[in-house]
Amino acid sequence: MLLSWTSSQVRAAEEPLLAAGVPLMDRAAFALATRVAGLLRERRGRVGGARVVLLVGPGNNGGDALFAGAFLARRGAEVVALAIDERIHAGGAAALVAAGGRVVPAGRAAAGLASGADVVLDGLLGIGASGGLRGGAAELVDALAQRGPAGPLVVAVDVPSGIGIDDGEVPGAVLPADLTVTFGAAKPGLLLPPAARLAGRVEVVDIGLDLAGSPSVARLDAADVAELWPVPPPEAHKYTRGVLGVVAGARRYPGAAVLATTAAVLTGVGMVRYLGDVGDLVVARRPEVVIGVGRVQAWVFGPGVSPDDASQRRRIEHAFEGVRERGEPAVCDAGALELLPDRVGAHVVLTPHAGELARLLSDRGEHVDRATVEAEPLRWVRLAHDLTGATVLLKGATTIVVGAQGATYSQADAPAWLATAGAGDVLAGLLGALLAGRADDIHEDPSLAAALAAAAALVHGRAADRANPGGPVSARGVAVALPETIADLLAGA
Ligand SMILES: NC(=O)C1=CN([C@@H]2O[C@H](COP(=O)(O)OP(=O)(O)OC[C@H]3O[C@@H](n4cnc5c(N)ncnc54)[C@H](OP(=O)(O)O)[C@@H]3O)[C@@H](O)[C@H]2O)[C@@H](O)CC1
Ligand SMILES: [K+]
């Protein structure tokens, strides 16, 4: 699991070590230089003679870049530091000059110099940033951005300068990085859209911080998902494994019912019950599915359901009674989002995309549109959780989940090919099966619903990759890839 910590948490963890004289900056800069040297060796065979440009801001982030530059200069690189401010880390600058590097003010020629380098280290701003880049730093990054995509490798020092460290906002110009070397712990902005896509690969360097309190945003990996998975014990039977009720589809949208039930069956659950008007089609495609009412451990509501469909609406409203009275976990998707009661518990997982989340919030007096949600997704997902009580999973290139007790996840496992009709129906069925398999545990600890939602997002993305690596996928293809994807995850492959 990749955990991230806010800038104030990181600062609090640094304080006692700095007071005790622990050389944190040396550790950070050495690790940074080692990574950069590795990149240079990969790219051009050796460090000697490489052209390295440091973009240096006024704080310790610039200090890291300067000390790393000194290390690279000692290895024979040609290192130039472009200082965007009169203030500059004095010790770092002296070390660079002593090692044979140069420090020059970032003037008109700066962007040209930087774009001719083998590698650029972005040390303009780190966790001391307030707002987006200003002044000379913003001008330099703008000028570099205009030079187009080809050019030097960019390594962000701690974070790409100018991102919202704690919320992933991108308030202005940011130099997109190929690699971010981050110190002590990942920062939330490296995992959250829209900033996350500017960070490139993220490498966390351990500088010995002892981080206290809860992490801000977590990202599950395959091993975490394997641990969360409801693997049936030897004595399992279909009712102990969980029964999932699916209220989905309509004569007009039969595919959603087929996809949601197919995904649930292939994810593995004791039984899937289907409630709706297209049971004949569902059974023709998935003979394992049982039609009609009966006891269930969890629900999926909404794929292919329009709120003006009176019979499906009745079924969902009726089922919500069980969700409230007996605490049955539920996925509330698509058309069912408009049928959500005012307050529910975190055992209910909403799965909107940005437009649906904007509508849900607007219906509750927070008038936002899709673009607003996309600019600050974590903020709005948190608000939706606060307003409804539900666990909220916002679908997107990076999926964000917020649940009980502040549990927050960000998953970026899906290829862009997964943005296709029906993919959401598959996710709903997959997540519903997970909720059914762990319904008792969710009852004990509703924050588990958020972890399971993040796990579903990871499996969904991996199944899409498996269905057709590097190429287009159909929603059905993703569902069909689920059993082998899950088996691989459980085997640790
Ligand atoms: N503590 C340690 O020993 C360790 C620290 N480490 C490293 O230090 C980094 C944190 O360093 P930091 O605290 O000095 O802040 P940093 O991000 O460099 O910038 C602050 C300066 O920028 C300025 N400024 C602010 N906003 C701005 C804007 N929007 N646009 C333009 N300028 C802006 C601000 O000026 P002011 O607003 O105060 O006038 C201030 O001068 C951290 O990310 C990590 O890399 C590691 O080595 C581990 C050990
Ligand atoms: K930086």
UniProtKB/TrEMBL annotation:
Cofactor: K(+); Mg(2+)
Cofactor binding notes: Binds 1 potassium ion per subunit.
Family indicated by similarity: In the N-terminal section; belongs to the NnrE/AIBP family. Belongs to the NnrE/AIBP family.
GO molecular function, one term: NAD(P)HX epimerase activity
PANTHER family, A to Z: ATP-DEPENDENT (S)-NAD(P)H-HYDRATE DEHYDRATASE (PTHR12592:SF0), ATP-DEPENDENT (S)-NAD(P)H-HYDRATE DEHYDRATASE FAMILY MEMBER (PTHR12592)
Keyword match Nucleus: no
Residues holding (6S)-NADPHX: 60-64, 126-132, 158, 256, 304, 353, 425
Binding-site residues, AMP: K395, G396, A397, T398, T399, G424
Domain of life the protein comes from: Bacteria
Free-text function comment from the UniProt entry: Catalyzes the epimerization of the S- and R-forms of NAD(P)HX, a damaged form of NAD(P)H that is a result of enzymatic or heat-dependent hydration. This is a prerequisite for the S-specific NAD(P)H-hydrate dehydratase to allow the repair of both epimers of NAD(P)HX.
A Pfam family reported for this protein in Swiss-Prot or TrEMBL: YjeF_N
Reaction(s) catalysed (UniProt annotation): (6S)-NADPHX + ADP = AMP + phosphate + NADPH + H(+); (6R)-NADPHX = (6S)-NADPHX; (6S)-NADHX + ADP = AMP + phosphate + NADH + H(+); (6R)-NADHX = (6S)-NADHX
Entry keywords, A to Z: ATP-binding, Isomerase, Lyase, Metal-binding, Multifunctional enzyme, NAD, NADP, Nucleotide-binding, Potassium
EC number: 4.2.1.136, 5.1.99.6
Quaternary structure annotation from Swiss-Prot or TrEMBL: Homotetramer.
Domain YjeF N-terminal: 10-215
HAMAP family to which the protein is assigned, alphabetical: NADHX_dehydratase, NADHX_epimerase
Segments forming domain YjeF C-terminal: 221-489
Residues engaged in binding K(+): N61, D122, S161
Alphabetical list of InterPro entries matching this protein: Carbohydrate_kinase_pred_CS, CARKD, Nnr, Ribokinase-like, YjeF_N_dom, YjeF_N_dom_sf
Name of the protein in its database record: Bifunctional NAD(P)H-hydrate repair enzyme
